[in-house]
């Protein structure tokens, strides 16, 4: 038996059965192309018997070139009818796909309760439907729904269902843990039995209701399954499907089952992130292999060791799956975290010197006050560069004032800012749709004459968190700000008991960080300065 595993992706079908996931035909086509580049062998595009979006997908996908087989999904024919008249089966054949998956019942309880038909009619539905697909030249995959539950209640009937599909010519028999309640030891035992009874190749399709979908898939492969069905990031009905982003590297790197090429494996992280962007579902930072924190090191003891050899705290080299190592700096940092971060910035730093210790103490003290640097890389860089005397004072705040009023039901917000740049004082006022926006506008208006490219920066995200909730409105707040110039994104932090002041701190860090990478222009001449409201000290 070959060791190669056929990867069957059902993100576009079972993945969209996950709550909150809805993909347009365009989205599906984009994801299908990405999956093809990843090297999966089957891409289940949807169910042409279900909705017109899926019909559109299959019409459009026909004109495109794929290495993977595009497959359509449907169910066995309806009870008491004939396959040739079944609209779901007809749509599959009309869609022109080279391969199709039909779901059919293998649990006697489901036959009686959900289908409300006889065990014999269910066997006939399976036989007729697969014979129909094969007569029409379609590669036929049988998703044997609830197989493990069915086997546990009535093994003879569950096995007879599989034999019917095989006799009708099904190319793959895929055993489904539809309710996700089976344990890995049971999966291994039952797959082993099925393999001894059938000649058709076996696949596995698991759900994550017991957080075991990946483990169950690996157990099935260990027992001889050679097709693995799953979704990117584990999207899917209820608690999700088996996560291919964990299954593929586990099979390929840990268990030596070839799935995709090593180069394709290196695109796993970008694929996972791309699909999460299109599906508009936030990826958990700690998602194994592909998450942002999958190879992020925070504890000082860990960082100290990985700087000696990353194998001390990494189970694989992150590059194998296209991810990368990150060092986080926080109150849990030791010197090693600081040194690693500073070296990344090209700063000359050593262990056990006074400066390193001072920086570490300052970070721990600020984190104690409520700052959080692991989510504010730009503020951390400014802190380190300040400590190394690398930051000139780009501007100095003299004062700011906020005016917030509600007149005739309309909110108006205005900020007045007074700053000094190279001994010149500038006053500006600007309105905004809220206090932070008004402050941002006023500060930019003051600085643009010195740093014109400041207009390319804008605020991308703004989060406020109450740090000490028991103090209610008197509590401190932490503001985390994300800014972008469309090429780069950076994050800054501010903390105060006043949300405007915390926002100002984060805003100033954001602008200082941006200015680090910008060239200054000569100051404007006296006359235009006067017009702009500039005064000399
Ligand atoms: C385990 C899985 O994930 S299976 C896939 C589940 N995915 C989906 O259901 C999403 C797509 N589904 C749909 O768009 C619709 O449900 C359709 C078009 C398939 C069917 O819609 P409707 O005809 O309105 O039926 P409805 O959804 O209410 O009920 C399902 C019907 O299919 C029947 N059915 C269920 N499984 C099978 C099967 N394997 N073979 C034949 N018939 C089946 C049910 O008995 C029920 O028939 P009934 O109406 O006579 O009781
Ligand atoms: C076919 C399928 O999606 C299941 O049984 O879970």
Textual characterization of the structure:
- The chain is α/β, with parallel strands linked by helices.
- It has helices at residues 25-38, 52-61, 87-94, 108-115, 119-135, 147-153, 155-167, 184-197, 213-222, 244-254, 262-265, 268-279, 300-308, 335-344, 354-369, 377-387, 435-447, 499-516, 526-531; strands at 6-9, 42-46, 69-75, 99-105, 139-145, 172-177, 202-206, 227-230, 296-297, 326-327, 396-407, 410-421, 424-432, 458-466, 477-484, 489-496, 534-536.
- Strand 6, helix 8 (184-197) and strand 7 (202-206) form a beta-alpha-beta unit.
- It has an 8-stranded parallel β-barrel, surrounded by 10 helices.
- The longest helix is centred in the last third of the chain and has 18 residues, at 499-516.
- It starts with 5 loop residues before the first strand and ends with a strand.
- Acetyl coenzyme *A is lined by residues 14, 17, 47, 49-50, 75-76, 78, 103-105, 114-115, 125, 145, 178, 237.
- It comes from Paenibacillus plantiphilus.
- One of its GO terms (molecular function) is acyltransferase activity.
- Pathway: Amino-acid biosynthesis; L-isoleucine biosynthesis; 2-oxobutanoate from pyruvate: step 1/3.
- It catalyses: pyruvate + acetyl-CoA + H2O = (3R)-citramalate + CoA + H(+).
